[in-house]
Design a protein that fits this description.
- The structure is a single chain.
- This protein is of the alpha+beta class and about 675 residues long.
- Among the domains are: about 35-235, no CATH class; about 270-375, no CATH class; about 535-665, no CATH class.
- Helices cover about 35% and strands about 15% of the residues.
- The protein is globular and about 80 Å long.
- The chain starts with 5 loop residues before the first strand and ends in a 5-residue tail after the last helix.
- The relative contact order is 0.10.
Length: about 675
């Protein structure tokens, strides 16, 4: 049998789902939807740039000093590591390679001082003085916060391998995070670390002449984690397999299964919803790891697996517990088999109007049980909404970013950046206009110009402003805090911008609600509209196709080339048809990719969902691409034009939802 190295990435995969170890790297046998693109991952997380910057914590000029092990070959990397790590004292090696039996790790940074080896795991995750790895209760019990545990298990695995590979040395583990408390002291920090894309890899090109002295404050935090590693070694690790295991036992179990190519069945749960080993194509000959796991645990036949699984149950606004995981533990694998006791809250209190979250779940379950494909719309309440919300109607959508390396001097890691918005206007008779838009692709800090443009569009306008979910309200509050932190007199119109933000937003902590506070169309969808076509999702990118499926009025209107005409003026489209059979009646599929060679939907998947919403990832990564890479003017212009269209559809989607409801109550014909 050929020995295969068991790496830290495989260990992390197994901790999440041990069954994946059996399916991984078998693309000739199993469907694998995972987009293995380091370049996209780097744009989404900024990890490559943070990793490169971290080297300057240990070397004045890491490029000149050649501290990085570049070889991808395991044996060559180990040999080079030994030469560099033990050639001088002290010594620093980046991408240092270590092996113990069949275990192999690449340590982001290894530092040797005499008989002491310090290892450093670099993550682009944000850290500040208010955060802590530990949780505790009144009884005095302490444990590691589950949000930090995967990162700490990662470095604990590395320390385990290095300590066993070099038993004569004292090994200490550290984490390096982006320090959200520390501002950058130079402009264009990100410009010094430029992304480069290759076939199957991504790399960072450091600007010639960059030294530690030139960087000023390096906004990274170094945290010793030996105590956390010791706790992980001594305690049982929570994993979704039968039995109790300590850390070393899990290493042996997983590495043994990897060597023997044996499957360890991980229990099924909510995590399965995004399983990469799902065969989505009916005529594909590839096997589905998802199907095999669910057949093993749920014992569902092929026909049952085509029915709505409990994974589709909407679990929003249910508190900390997972209704899906609870249902699976109770052997309820199909939505149609759920009962009130499986989801109904003890503290249920009927809403004055609209669906309570439990009512919405009940509606979803009943429609599954009856195979009812019709939509639900509370026309009585929707009519009241139209009567209460003053026209004209303003629909806005923001595209934003939070990147680990600050783009601008004085800014901190993961500060909010708002670089784009789209704005549609509809009058009381249903006449639609793409009123305005804003996009900043420069390397200047855009937030204040962004708010100035939005203020010029919306200030003192009559009517009702709509957003979709919390995003726009949250970012305007971020920008308000940024304005308040500016030195007095620096931003001449600071007070006016703050007044405008407070006029159209609210803030729970400060308990203000502006007189023209934006209305959340997402909340209205939750309360008054349900479509089986959306499969439990309330993302606008799923709700719009559902609306098109449910509304003959919308289908008929927008299957004609009327958008971008005198009837419906647009800033970016001309005679555009939103709904075609060729695109599966999904307007989002009529858009060009905002990055050449990538689908927008695929890039959205790279951005973690926030409150069930996975929108805007493509725009965020396109913005990062323009900041982190060298882009010719012609390509920059193409990306800008694609971003305009991308954002315009998000506000047009809101218009279509509103128009659909208006038509259902007899307003728009």
């Amino acid at each position: 049998m050929i020995q295969r190295y068991f790496t830290k990435s495989l260990f992390s995969t197994a901790l999440d789902c041990s069954a994946k170890l059996f399916y991984i790297n078998k693309k000739e046998q199993y469907a694998d939807e995972n987009i293995e693109d380091p370049f996209l991952a780097a744009l989404a997380e900024g990890g490559f740039q943070v990793g490169e910057l971290a080297k300057y914590l240990f070397s004045e000029d890491p490029v000149k000093d050649q501290i990085t092990i570049a070889s991808k070959n395991y044996d060559t990397a180990i040999e080079s590591t030994n030469e560099k790590l033990f050639g001088t004292d002290p010594s620093v090696v980046a991408e240092a390679a270590f092996r113990y039996n069949d275990l192999f790790v690449r340590v982001d940074i290894a530092e040797r001082k005499g008989k002491v080896i310090n290892i450093y795991e670099v993550k682009s995750k944000s850290w500040n003085s208010e955060k802590d790895f530990w949780k505790s209760n009144k009884q005095g019990d302490v444990w590691i916060d589950k949000d930090w545990l995967p990162y700490l298990c990662d470095v604990a695995f590395q320390k385990y391998v290095v300590q066993h590979a070099l038993p004569e040395f004292e090994v200490h583990a550290h984490m390096i995070f982006a320090d959200a408390d520390m501002p950058a002291t130079i402009n264009g920090l990100n410009q010094l670390f430029r992304m480069q894309k290759g076939e199957g890899y991504s790399s960072v090109k450091v600007k010639d002449g960059t030294t530690r002295s030139f960087l000023g404050n390096i906004p990274l935090a170094i945290l010793p984690v030996d105590t956390e590693c010791d706790w992980i070694y001594k305690n049982h690790v929570e994993v979704d397999i039968e039995g109790d295991y300590k850390f070393e036992q899990l290493i042996n179990l997983f590495s043994g299964a990897w060597q023997k190519d044996e499957r360890i069945w991980s229990s099924i749960g909510r995590k399965c919803k995004d399983c990469q080993f799902t065969n989505k194509y009916e005529h594909s000959k590839l096997k589905s790891g998802f199907t095999e796991c669910w057949q093993h645990w749920a014992m569902l036949n092929d026909d049952e697996l085509k029915m709505p699984l409990v994974l589709e149950l909407w679990g929003g606004l249910a508190g900390a517990k997972s209704l899906v995981d609870d249902a699976i533990k109770n052997k309820k694998f199909l939505i149609s088999r759920l009962e009130d006791k499986d989801y109904w809250p003890e503290n249920y209190k009927e809403k004055e109007s609209g669906l309570h979250p439990a009512d919405r779940r009940k509606l979803q379950i009943m429609k599954c049980q009856k195979a009812d494909k019709t939509f639900y719309l509370d026309r009585v309440e929707v009519k009241k909404i139209f009567e209460n919300y003053e026209p004209p109607y303003h629909f806005i959508d923001f595209e934003t970013s939070m990147i680990a390396l600050p783009f601008h001097m004085g800014r901190k890691p993961y500060e909010a950046i708002a670089f784009q918005y789209s704005y549609h206007l509809m009058d009381e008779k249903g006449k639609i206009l793409h009123k305005n838009q804003y996009l900043s692709l420069s390397q200047e800090f855009p937030n204040y110009d962004f708010v100035r443009a939005l203020k010029n569009d919306l200030l003192e306008q009559e009517g009702t402003i709509f957003r979709y979910h919390n995003h726009e309200n949250t970012y305007l509050n971020f920008i308000k805090d940024q304005l308040l932190a500016e030195p007095a007199g620096l931003i001449k119109d600071r007070d006016e911008l703050i007044d405008f933000i407070e006029d159209i937003t609210h803030h729970k902590g400060s308990k203000w609600r502006g007189p023209n506070d934006m209305q959340d169309l997402w909340k209205l969808v939750l309360s008054y509209y349900y479509s089986p076509f959306a499969k439990g999702s309330n993302s606008i990118k799923e709700i719009l196709p559902a609306v098109i499926n449910d509304s003959a009025f919308i289908r008929d209107k927008y299957s004609k080339p009327i958008y971008g005409t005198a009837n419906i003026p647009s800033k970016n489209f001309k005679d555009h048809v939103w709904i075609t059979d060729a695109t599966g009646r999904n307007p989002y599929k009529t858009l060009p990719g905002v990055l050449p060679g990538y689908e927008n939907a695929a890039m959205d998947e790279f951005v973690p969902a926030v409150d069930e919403i996975k929108d805007g990832g493509a725009a965020m990564m396109a913005y990062a691409y323009l900041q982190f890479t060298d882009v010719p003017p012609e390509q920059k212009s193409l990306i800008g034009n694609a971003l305009y269209r991308y954002c315009e559809l998000d506000t047009m989607a809101m218009v279509m939802i509103w128009e659909f409801w208006g038509n259902e109550i007899g307003l728009f014909k």
